[in-house]
Design brief:
Blueprint: E1 7-9, E2 12-15, H1 22-30, H2 32-37, H3 47-62, E3 66-72, E4 75-82, E5 90-97, H4 106-120, E6 125-131, H5 135-143, E7 147-157, E8 163-172, E9 192-193, E10 197-201, H6 207-215, H7 217-220, H8 230-238, H9 240-245, E11 250-256, E12 262-272, E13 277-284, H10 293-308, E14 313-319, H11 323-331, E15 335-345, E16 351-360
Parallel strand pairs: 5-6, 13-14
Antiparallel strand pairs: 1-2, 2-3, 3-4, 4-5, 6-8, 7-8, 9-10, 10-11, 11-12, 12-13, 14-16, 15-16
This protein binds coenzyme A.
Coenzyme A binds at residues 33-34, 37-38, 94-97, 102-108, 130, 134-137, 139-140, 143, 241.
């Protein structure tokens, strides 16, 4: 049993929810973002739902869990809940912040303080789970010092029945509990452009074009493994924000700046912070070739990476037969580092050599 305390977090006060909070709870739960990311909440959300929630909050405390209203100067800003500990002392927390209080660090401060309080009161492990597309909540987890532990695939369903993955986090007593800053910041302004090409984070709207491009024989010839299903490619596009925020990869659509058409894809993958190294990979739709689009895209992406991240080496690997790709890298300033023999398995059962390339972080005074 956790003590029924009031917890102070800076100017915020966490206390037991009360019937007087009902109007604010209704407004917070009727919000479309709340409804999107908490699909088990009733929709539409009524006064009866709010009163039932307040009543059940009392029961939750009696069962060994906890439920708090997050308030400031007496005003309801959101809710935070704690499950009763399991047999190993693990608890799970959840939260929502009302639309009028978002983007001010409320959830991050509450998640951190609640985890500290729970660990101080005998919990051995505090778990938190966020849907893979819930970037605000993922960011809260990193900012509150939680450590990412994995992704539970297809673990929950949305209101329309689509299954979705849940990213799992935890804090345990020996964790430092410090905020993790993203190794890969998002683009200021949302995209990179040189006026001819635009690089935009991949979204589900790009999935069809992306999927078609990967099926083109001239692209598939240099791909690895079987071509994904459209559903797999859609899922991958939906995860762009999570991959980015978690420092795993950057996935971009290349758009023709003049028309907005999807022209190709470029990515930074295999990011190894300890080496300060990442790998660039790309493909262009065939009718956009021969216009310098990919060289421009590689220059934009590598220029951003050296300006905005600590990366020191950006590497690339081309099939020894892929002279067009090698020309792109040379024009973008990459130099050959060597050959990895028989690296690429080919569809005919043979293997192709890889030529390895690198672009180094420009030294002071050098232009990237
Ligand atoms: C998730 C939620 C609780 C966040 O509350 P909040 O008080 O606004 O959170 P914070 O201000 O502490 O932090 C939000 C972070 O996410 C970032 N963020 C918000 N929307 C984002 C988006 N679409 N893409 C990327 N980052 C985003 C904010 O910039 C902020 O990070 P920063 O401080 O580094 O800039 C709130 O959006 C909410 O209630 N959503 C609906 C319910 C929900 O999702 N609950 C959690 C279920 S796991």
């Amino acid at each position: 049993m956790f003590p029924r305390e009031v917890i102070s977090v800076g100017s915020l006060v966490l206390r037991v929810p009360a019937e007087d909070d009902a109007e604010a709870i209704i407004a917070a739960c009727a919000d479309p973002v709340t409804a999107r990311f908490l699909p088990l909440l009733p929709s539409p959300y009524t006064r009866e739902d709010a009163m039932e929630y307040v009543r059940r909050s009392g029961e939750k405390w009696e069962r060994g869990g906890a439920e708090f209203a997050i308030t400031e100067n007496g005003r309801y800003l959101g809710s935070a809940g704690v499950s009763a500990p399991d047999g190993w002392g693990t608890v799970r927390i959840g939260y929502l912040v009302a639309p009028w209080a978002r983007g001010k660090g409320v959830a991050s401060a509450v998640a951190r303080a609640l985890a500290d309080w729970l660990l101080d009161h005998g919990a051995s492990r505090v778990e938190l789970e966020a849907e893979v597309e819930n970037l605000a909540s993922l960011r809260v987890a990193y900012r509150a010092g939680f450590v990412e532990e994995g992704r539970r695939r297809g673990a929950k369903a949305l209101r329309d029945g689509r299954r979705t993955d849940q990213v799992t986090f935890a804090r345990i007593a020996r964790d430092p509990g410090v905020a993790t800053e993203p190794f890969l910041p998002f683009f200021a302004g949302g995209e990179l452009s040189d006026g001819v090409v635009r690089l935009t984070p991949m979204t589900v709207a790009d999935a069809g074009d992306y999927h078609e491009m990967l099926r083109e024989p001239s692209v598939a010839a240099f791909g690895l493994g079987a071509v994904n299903s459209l559903e797999d490619d859609e899922r991958r596009c939906r995860y762009t924000g999570y991959f980015w925020l978690s420092g795993q990869r950057v996935e971009l659509a290349i758009k023709d700046a003049a028309t907005g058409e999807f022209a190709g894809h470029i990515q930074l993958v295999q990011i190894v912070p300890d080496f300060g190294q990442a790998m660039v990979g790309y493909s262009l739709v065939s009718r956009f070739r021969g216009r310098g689009f990919m060289t421009r895209s590689v220059r934009l992406l590598t220029g951003w990476a050296f300006a905005e991240t600590p990366l020191h080496r950006i590497v690339a690997g081309t099939d020894a037969a892929n002279t067009a790709s090698q020309a792109v890298l040379e024009r973008a300033g990459f130099v050959r580092e060597g050959t990895r023999r028989e690296l690429f398995p080919k569809a005919d059962g043979g293997r192709a050599d890889e030529i390895s390339w690198v672009l180094m972080r420009p030294t002071a005074g050098e232009k990237s």
